[in-house]
Amino acid sequence: MKEGFLVPTAMQSETVFAKLHKDINTVVSLACSAGSSNIRRTYPEYKFVETCVDAGLMVTDTDKNILKITMPFEQFKDEAGFEYETKTGRKTADNNNLPIMNSGNKIRVMEAVK
User: Is 49 left (phi over 0), alpha (psi -120 to 50) or beta?
Assistant: First the structure.
């Protein structure tokens, strides 16, 4: 690898724009599929390596730096209700930081925000 940079959020296309060194020929994405799509559109001339798989839909609390998988895709169905630290990806010790789907009392997301 000759050069690298981190784009903290690739889902908003206006944050993806950056000038790459002329010798760069590959972009390695650590983004979700939406972010990867923005990167592909921004840099169509580069080889693209996608490294992540979407687990499903989730809710997040930026104050607590926690995300919870609320509607997992089929291959991650056993992850429903699990919480992760947003900056590390580590599972939390318990899954009760966000008041959705706690203690086996799985409340649908839209019901919880009413």
Answer: beta
| pLDDT digits 0-9 by tens, 43-100 | 888 888 888 889 999 898 889 999 999 999 999 999 998 999 987 889 998 888 887 7
Q: Are 18 and 10 within 8 A, CB to CB? A: no
3-class DSSP assignment, residue 59: strand
Element (H, E) at 71: strand 66-72
As given in the structure block, the two tokens for residue 26 are: 């590959």
Q: Are 31 and 10 in contact (CB under 8 A)?
A: yes
Are 64 and 99 within 8 A, CB to CB? no
Residues whose CB falls within 8 Å of the CB of residue 70, separated by 6 or more in sequence, listed in order: 56, 57, 58, 59, 80, 81, 100, 101, 109
Residue-wise pLDDT for 4-36, tens only, equals 666 656 666 665 666 777 788 888 888 888 888
**Burial grade of 107 (CB within 10 A; 0-12, 13-18, 19 or more):** middle
